[in-house]
Amino acid sequence: MRVTLKTYSLVLVLLASGCLAGPAASALAGTGGTSGGAAATAGAATATPTTGIGTHVIATWFGPGLYGKQTACGQTLTPDVVGVANRTLPCGTLVQIEYAGHSLTVPVLDRGPYSHHASWDLTAGAAQALGIAETVRISAQVVGATANTPTLGLPAAVTSAAPVSGGVPAG
Prior knowledge:
Blueprint: H1 5-30, H2 37-42, E1 54-62, E2 84-85, E3 93-99, E4 102-110, E5 120-123, H3 124-130, E6 136-145, E7 168-169
Parallel strand pairs: 1-5, 2-4
Antiparallel strand pairs: 1-6, 2-5, 3-4, 3-6, 4-7
């Protein structure tokens, strides 16, 4: 097999551009996927990876052993917090989750799941709202984004400064 100079040059250019994009992407992932402010988060849902988006993806849930600790996006986890963890989507991305005839729109507010076979990790509040008590297959779709705030995911009754928060019925 003969490789031409033109093909070799194209491969080198592609590899070089991938190496330059890698550090920037990992830096964003370390900050919850945002590079600053609500304006950066607002358009994030359209330019983000779609890992775990679609029907019949695996979801787990978390919460009881982690109450009182901060999520990767800066919220304090309590039983009232309704949200989801995802490895790649930016904090504040709104995701519509459907399971067994129930539908709920929740914000991304943590990194995970830590189980490598699952795409999503629901807070205990989100799992309870959807009737989930174990690892299940769900449908997940990105539907928008909102500002990442310390009260993101808290029901409106818990906070007086309720942003567009998680736990919003999507039906």
